[in-house]
């Protein structure tokens, strides 16, 4: 199957398109994680455990936070991609953020993000590299697909939002909106 | 029309004589005389001593003012005096003198609100037509704007006046009260460089200074910068040596404390003034009251006003610091509308809010 | 006099296409309309520009404290399910234009579509004035009942806010919005009177703070009561409906309302010397 890499132009960041791909049934999470830990430059991605993702808005908020901090030389981690994983976390603990939101050897549903921080990083280059390195089924990066992957209880626990009502399967659920908005607040306020 | 203005609500005794020409041309200052009761360093002025000062100088000052103005008693139309607000005993000494002159000369009395005096004098001198007024002195801190016949208070201090805060810190540092403690703080602050952290308390358009005073007094104590001895050391040092040997290792100097205090409290004042300007949609700001003669405050207010596309109006110490002509000016405006203070009501009061005055002379 | 120019937008908004549109400029903050992170969805951008009159260290400290405080209040209210705009992004450091100077901190919020209550009440009062002659008693009663309904919703929204442990600090009819439901029209069918339907949304938490004090809650209500009295004379006699809505919205409401009576007697501030 052809790559389903989506390239998002985040408003306010016209010069840095963001490339996102969502996979199901990933077979080689351990390999990808290994490459990342070894610091292989071509594997510099934000690899995210999709069970920790509630919605697109949550991911884009974290990307925006990370890129804004990157643009203003305020990165807390190595690079803008590790910063995206870190930005999903509500607290300043970097290793905790990777334990919670990063991939593990057994991750099956995975979200990959890459930001065009240099001109060589293009939709084509990212798509080609991911095609050749990720063994999994590319799926559409939308709220519907994400909702089939997200582990609401784990997400609520990570963001210390246990008291919030859990969203039901219904579309445009009020509880989901409230949870999502709460996640966005946490991402915006981290470190304040 | 000629009026004598008599002011003595704090430690300045001021006698002024103003002329409002019959042809409607610009009012003229005929005499503006002031004598200040200066207390020793480390001490504030006490009501009874201040009242004694006013009593012993008032006759001399009135005579001198008439002489300087080259007017005779017959030329005078009314006697204006400060009704309040201010310190009880000093106010009383002056009101008694005013009453005596009124009976002696057969002239009518006009009781004036001290704050309104400042505002009207400021408007006259600067030509500001409808400004937001910041009134800052040893006894008052108010942000005022005019609306339908009242000077309305939009914001004010919730505890002590800003001038009082500065004066009391001058006492902590044993800075001279001559010519004024605030003036000497301003001079010392010019040598300050390091900003120390102080509380910053603004609530809407109101502010508070007591916590700041406590904090900076605490810092002076912590670093051993208060008291007579340190004040003497300061006097012996040149500017260079102060900055060279004390600004090291994060230890603040006396100058740093004065600098930080000014930067903090003036920022608060500019902030609440800006808020009032935004609220009423005014681009003019007029600073009155003794603290208004501080050049750093004027500079900060000027930057704020410029960024809002407006301008700041301030006066120098002749008009800004308590004086008699401002009482004559505001008194005469009221007198012109038919306002009189009968002898039986010629009292004074420590509490007299700016917005209690019915401003009949403005549209 | 020099023409006023708003300060340059902080990065990254100096690159935003199309540029954010300045809506209002208060003493503290400038409000812009822009897009959210998704270009198809509008957002409100609140910028607290640097204040060049104050010492740079103090300026940074205050700007940072205040924008964080506002964002935290919003976050708390969002978690509690209070009707406020979502907080989309935040930068308390702030950056200037291309020269990289200190430009100001910013906060991006959900765009609330709909009028502020001030406008809604003004329209209603104008409509009433215009049509008074032709309305009979029951129609007037019916109109007043509609405004009471709106005031009750406002009271209830404020109650929910207070229940969450936040006081607004600057409650006016300009800081309450009416978000119409998707299918609602602007006017009531038949009479043409302005619609008063929709959800009340609280905005602008620039002066808000955490408080569970009855005094602070009472001052919130008092400030709003005074604001309605001075700007909406025709709606003022109906203020009791707001109190009713407030009373029914949370448990501690009655003790805050008791305090309101004290505050009404003395005014917002205590009288003081000089």
Walk me through this protein's architecture.
The complex is a heterotrimer of chains A (192), B (363) and C (274). The longest helix of chain A is centred in the N-terminal third of the chain and has 16 residues, at 56-71. Chain A has helices spanning 29-37, 56-71, 80-88, 94-101, 123-133, 143-149, 152-158, 174-189; strands spanning 6-8, 18-24, 46-49, 110-115, 137-139. In chain A, strands 1, 2, 3, 4 and 5 form a five-stranded antiparallel sheet that branches. By secondary structure, chain A is of the alpha+beta class. Chain A has eight helices and five strands; from the N terminus they run E-E-H-E-H-H-H-E-H-E-H-H-H. Chain B folds into two domains: 2-124 and 321-337, ATPase, nucleotide binding domain (Nucleotidyltransferase, domain 5); 128-239 and 249-318, ATPase, nucleotide binding domain (Nucleotidyltransferase, domain 5), CATH 3.30.420. In chain B, strands 3-2-1-4-5 form a five-stranded mixed sheet, sandwiched between helices. In chain B, strands 8-7-6-11-12 form a five-stranded mixed sheet, with helices on both faces. In chain B, helix 1 (47-69) packs parallel to helix 2 (88-105), helix 4 (162-172) packs parallel to helix 6 (210-222) and helix 5 crosses helix 9. Chain B is globular, with a radius of gyration of 21 Å. With 274 residues, chain C is of the alpha+beta class. Chain C has helices spanning 56-79, 117-131, 137-163, 214-231, 240-247, 253-266, and strands at 21-25, 30-35, 42-49, 87-91, 104-110, 166-167, 176-179, 199-202, 209-210. The longest helix of chain C is centred in the middle third of the chain and has 27 residues, at 137-163. Chain C starts with 20 loop residues before the first strand and ends in an 8-residue tail after the last helix. Residues 270-274 of chain C have low confidence and may be disordered. Chains in contact: A-C, B-C. The interface between A and C is medium-sized, with 28 and 30 residues. Chain B: Its cofactor is a divalent metal cation. Chain B: This is N(6)-L-threonylcarbamoyladenine synthase.
Give short descriptive properties of this protein.
heterotrimer; A: 192 residues; alpha+beta; PF0523-like; five-stranded antiparallel β-sheet; 12% strand; C: 274 residues; Phosphorylase Kinase, domain 1; Transferase(Phosphotransferase), domain 1; two-stranded antiparallel ribbon; 6 helices; 9 strands; 39% helix; disordered C terminus
């Amino acid at each position: 199957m052809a790559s389903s890499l989506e390239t998002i132009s985040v408003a306010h960041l016209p010069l840095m398109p963001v490339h996102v791909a969502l996979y199901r049934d990933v077979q080689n999470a351990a390999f990808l994680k290994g490459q990342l830990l070894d610091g292989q430059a071509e594997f510099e991605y934000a690899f995210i455990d999709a069970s920790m993702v509630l919605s697109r808005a949550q991911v884009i908020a974290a990307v925006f936070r990370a890129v804004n901090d990157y643009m203003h030389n305020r990165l807390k981690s190595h690079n803008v991609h590790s910063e995206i994983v870190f930005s999903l976390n509500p607290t300043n603990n970097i290793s905790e953020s990777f334990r919670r939101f990063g991939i593990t050897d057994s991750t099956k549903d995975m979200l990959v993000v890459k930001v065009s921080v240099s001109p060589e990083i293009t939709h084509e280059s990212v798509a080609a590299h991911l095609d050749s390195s990720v063994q999994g089924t590319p799926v559409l990066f939308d709220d519907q697909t994400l909702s089939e992957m997200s582990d609401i209880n784990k997400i609520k626990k990570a963001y210390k939002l246990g008291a919030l009502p859990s969203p039901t399967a219904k579309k445009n659920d009020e509880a989901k909106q409230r949870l999502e908005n709460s996640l966005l607040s946490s991402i915006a306020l981290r470190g304040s | 029309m000629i009026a004598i203005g008599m002011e003595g609500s704090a430690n300045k005794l001021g006698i002024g004589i103003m002329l409002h020409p019959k042809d409607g041309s610009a009012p003229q200052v005929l005499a503006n005389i002031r004598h200040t009761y200066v207390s020793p360093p480390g001490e504030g002025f006490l009501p009874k001593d201040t009242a004694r000062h006013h009593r012993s100088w008032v006759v001399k000052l009135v005579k001198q003012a008439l002489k300087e103005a080259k007017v005779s008693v017959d030329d005078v139309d009314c006697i204006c005096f400060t009704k309040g607000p201010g310190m009880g005993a000093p106010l009383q000494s002056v009101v008694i003198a005013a009453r005596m002159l009124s009976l002696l000369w057969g002239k009518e009395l006009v009781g004036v609100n001290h704050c309104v005096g400042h505002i009207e004098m400021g408007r006259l001198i600067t030509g500001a037509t409808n400004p937001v007024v910041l009134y800052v002195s040893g006894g008052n801190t108010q942000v005022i704007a005019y609306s339908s016949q009242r000077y309305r208070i939009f914001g004010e201090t919730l505890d002590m006046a800003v001038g009082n805060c500065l004066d009391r810190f001058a006492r902590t540092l044993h800075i001279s009260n001559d010519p004024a403690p605030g003036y000497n703080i301003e001079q010392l602050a010019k040598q300050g460089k390091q900003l120390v952290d102080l509380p910053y308390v603004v609530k809407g358009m109101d502010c508070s200074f007591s916590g700041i005073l406590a904090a900076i007094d605490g810092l002076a104590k912590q670093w051993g910068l208060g008291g007579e001895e340190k004040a003497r050391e300061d006097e012996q040092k040149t500017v260079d040596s102060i900055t060279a040997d004390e600004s090291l290792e994060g230890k603040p100097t006396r100058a740093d404390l004065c600098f930080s205090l000014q930067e903090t409290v003036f920022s608060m004042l500019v902030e609440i003034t800006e808020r009032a300007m935004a609220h009423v949609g005014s681009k003019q700001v007029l600073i009155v009251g003794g603290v208004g003669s501080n050049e750093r405050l004027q500079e900060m207010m000027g930057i704020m006003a410029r960024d809002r596309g407006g301008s700041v109006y301030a006066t120098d110490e002749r008009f800004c610091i308590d004086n008699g002509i401002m009482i004559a000016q505001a008194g005469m405006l009221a007198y012109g509308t038919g306002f009189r203070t009968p002898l039986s009501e010629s009292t004074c009061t420590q509490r007299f809010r700016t917005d209690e005055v019915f401003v009949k002379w403005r549209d | 006099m020099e023409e006023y120019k708003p300060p340059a937008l902080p990065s990254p908004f100096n690159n935003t296409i199309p540029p954010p549109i300045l809506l209002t400029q208060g003493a503290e903050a400038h409000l812009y309309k822009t897009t959210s992170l998704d270009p198809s969805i509008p957002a409100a951008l609140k910028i607290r520009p640097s204040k060049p009159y104050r010492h740079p260290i103090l300026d940074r400290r205050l700007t940072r404290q205040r924008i964080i405080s506002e964002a935290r209040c919003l976050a708390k209210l969002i978690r509690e399910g209070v009707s406020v705009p979502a907080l989309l992004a935040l930068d308390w450091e702030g950056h200037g234009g291309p020269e990289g100077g200190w430009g100001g901190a910013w906060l991006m919020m959900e765009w609330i579509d709909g009028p502020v209550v001030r406008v809604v009440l003004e329209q209603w009062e104008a409509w009433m004035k215009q049509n008074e002659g032709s309305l009979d008693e029951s129609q007037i009663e019916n109109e007043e009942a509609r405004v009471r309904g709106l005031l009750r919703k406002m009271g209830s929204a404020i109650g929910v806010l207070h229940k969450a442990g936040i006081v607004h600090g600057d409650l006016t009819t300009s800081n309450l919005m009416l978000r119409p439901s998707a299918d609602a029209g602007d006017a009531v069918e038949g009479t043409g009177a302005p619609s008063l339907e929709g959800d009340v949304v609280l905005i602008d938490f620039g002066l808000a703070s955490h408080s569970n004090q009855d005094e602070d809650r009472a001052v919130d209500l008092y400030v709003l009561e005074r604001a309605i009295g001075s700007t909406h004379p025709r709606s003022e006699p109906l203020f009791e409906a707001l109190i009713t809505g407030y009373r029914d919205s949370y448990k501690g409401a009655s003790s805050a309302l008791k305090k309101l009576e004290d505050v009404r007697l003395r005014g917002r501030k205590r009288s003081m010397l000089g």
